[in-house]
Amino acid sequence: MRVKFVLVSTVLLLVSLALSIYLSSNWYVIFAIVFILTVMGYVDMIQTRQSIRRIYPLLGRLRYVMEELRPKMYQYFIESDIDGRPFSRLDRSSIYQRAKNVRDTIPFGTQLDLYAEGYEWMCHSVAPRAFDTLNHDPRVKIGNKDCKQPYSSSILNISAMSFGSLSSNAIEALNGGAKIGGFAHNTGEGGLSDYHLKHGGDIIWQIGTGYFGCRDEEGKFNPELFAEKSKNPSVKMIEIKLSQGAKPGHGGILPSSKNTEEIARIRHIKPHTVVASPPFHSAFNTPVEMIKFIKQLRDLSDGKPIGFKLCIGHKSEFIAICKAMIHLDVYPDFIAIDGGEGGTGAAPPEFSNYVGAPMIDGLDFVHNILNGLGIRDHIKIIASGKITSAFHVARAMALGADACYQARAMMMALGCIQALICNTNECPSGVATQKKELAVGLVVKDKKARVAEYHSKMLKNYVELLGASGLDETKNLTRSHIYRRVSLNEMITYEELFPSIDIGSMLDDAGIPTKYKLDFANADMESWGIKFHRLQ
After folding, report:
1. Which of 289, 415, 418, 515 could pair covalently with 51 via S-S, beta carbons 3.0-4.6 A apart?
2. pLDDT (tens digit, 9 = 90+) per residue, 26-39?
3. 482: pLDDT confidence band, cut at 50, 70 and 90?
4. What is the 3-state secondary structure (H, E, C) of 103-148?
């Protein structure tokens, strides 16, 4: 659009000037109008604050005009959310406002239906803690008994989004923001690129089923290549992706239009081809082999924290992984729990809508099993799945998470307008595209500051929520602090909805709750899948 604008505006200026000189002086009015519009267009291309105006000079201004013209209350109208509560334009507006460091308060109070089934809220105290007395940068140490290089992580980090799905400018801005704000940036399964390393932000290197960036010519895991890259000082943790909430049980897809020469070099694949990651790993075939693979990665990386990410499917498979941990006395340093509400630009609708447990259900299950088997102290839990507010962070922490990932909110902080064409390579804000003419609209210097500002504001709001509840630390936040309305006249706490499990209570058969007995019976650490054992 920028090139087209230059060509069209130049032609119109020359034509109107020629008509003014050779035909009639009245054409000078037209020439003046064209000149003014041309200047406005060039101003749009030069400015760095608004990606849409930068990519679509002059025409891009219509977006901001329409925002001003629309009824103000329209911004609060909703789209459906996974748990029945609205994911509103208010949520999006607050993300934009926090990223831009402008006022994010709202008029006329609560915009949600407090009496709707599924509405949730957090308890407050009549003796709240003063914000100035609280820790403004809560962190968690990730690294168990076998980890030689534990990582002090922010409780809020950037979720997995690959270079390839996102533009180089977007990756740079995210990592630059992570550097400024002191939090971590997950690479996604697309490999460790130059753009992830350019600004020196902390990196969580994700290893998916395609082993991009650490694979041989046949697409198998290459230990030598992994060892070389994992020792980069910016790489703080390594995450094995078993499944993704947006498309669990389905490999990733990179369209040929996005598979450039550069991306092919980074991923060690052939350029300009459709790249479909396998739905399963070839480096291990059983839960025991998977735990041995975790030990191998820890050794190859000189003892950096190793974890894995999954969306809960067959519960027996996760229990089988835990049995393998206990059997080998080898534990991941962290587990990232993704939810079926996760987003993507490359998944069939059936997988996005109907496969995989929602995050809060998966988080409750994983925390309970690790507690019940007495191994929770070895492993930190990271929650990932449509976390767009400080309340969502608090809810995840109450269920057992130690930290959280954010994806779509970080994209909005970059300037994403949810055009919903991520899979077409035509993202109008330069975020999810490999087209240089679109990516140029996203100015790294400006957007990395917005990412850092958004993260800072989110942490501030989370800490304020803790203080309002009379708490001074996250570890004191429990399931009893979160309420959900289940009918017009009934509310229950998360402790009632998701009862906690006592530490070590599942180490013998008698202590296994009835709802988990069949899952334990079907859990086999020597194979995946379920055997359909039936309880007598």
Report:
1. 415
2. 888 888 888 998 98
3. very high
4. CCCCCCCCCCCCCCCCCEEECCCCCCCCHHHCCCCCEEEECCCCCC
Residues in the chain: 536
User: What is the rounded distance in angstroms from the CA atom of residue 322 to the CA atom of residue 316?
Assistant: 10
Mean pLDDT, range 393-422, rounded to an integer: 92
For the stretch 42-69, pLDDT in tens is 888 888 888 888 888 888 887 766 666 5
Domain count, the chain: 2
Burial bucket for residue 104 (CB in 10 Å: 0-12, 13-18, 19+): middle
Q: Please indicate, yes or no, if residue 356 is contained in any of the structural domains.
A: yes
- Where in the sequence is the domain holding 285, given as residue range(s)? 133-497
pTM of the model: 0.88
Give residue 84's pLDDT band: very low, low, confident or very high (50, 70, 90): very low
SS3 content of the chain, % helix, strand, coil (to 5): 45, 15, 45
Question: Does one domain contain both 241 and 360?
Answer: yes
Q: Do 145 and 63 lie in a common domain?
A: no
Asked whether the predicted pLDDT for residue 305 surpasses 70, the reply is yes
Q: Are residues 169 and 21 in the same domain?
A: no
CA distance 427 to 437: 11
Q: Residue 307: inside a domain, yes or no?
A: yes
How far is Cα of residue 471 from the mean position of the Cα atoms in its chain?
A: 27
Nearest CA-CA partner of 207 in 270, 269, 271, 267: 267
Q: Is 250 helix (H, G, I), strand (E, B) or coil?
A: coil
Contacts of 157 (CB under 8 A, 6+ apart): 178, 183, 184, 185, 186, 204, 382, 403, 404, 405, 406
Same domain flag for 153 and 262: yes
Lowest mean per-residue pLDDT among 98-107, 224-233, 276-285, 352-361 = 98-107
In a domain, 400, yes or no: yes
Chain centre distance of CA 83: 18
Start-to-end Cα distance in the chain: 68
Q: Parallel, antiparallel, or unpaired: how do β-strands 275-276 and 306-311 relate?
A: unpaired
What's the rounded Cα separation, in Å, for the pair 261 and 311? Answer: 32
Residue 43 lies in a domain: yes
Nearest one of 193, 293, 174, 194 to 241, comparing CA atoms: 293
Where are the extended beta strands (E) located within 133-207? 139-142, 151-154, 156-158, 184-186, 202-207
Average pLDDT in the chain = 88
Q: Identify whether the C-beta of residue 1 lies closer than 8 Å to the C-beta of residue 55.
A: yes
- What distance in Å separates the CA atoms of residue 400 and residue 380, rounded to the nearest whole number? 9
CA–CA separation, 201 vs 185, rounded Å? 7
Q: Which residue has the tokens 């190793």?
A: 306
> Which residue has 């925390």 as its token pair?
367
Question: Which helix (H) or strand (E) covers residue 383, if one does?
Answer: strand 380-384
Q: Say how far apart CA 477 and CA 136 lie, in whole Å.
A: 16
User: What are the structure tokens assigned to 181, written together?
Assistant: 């704000």
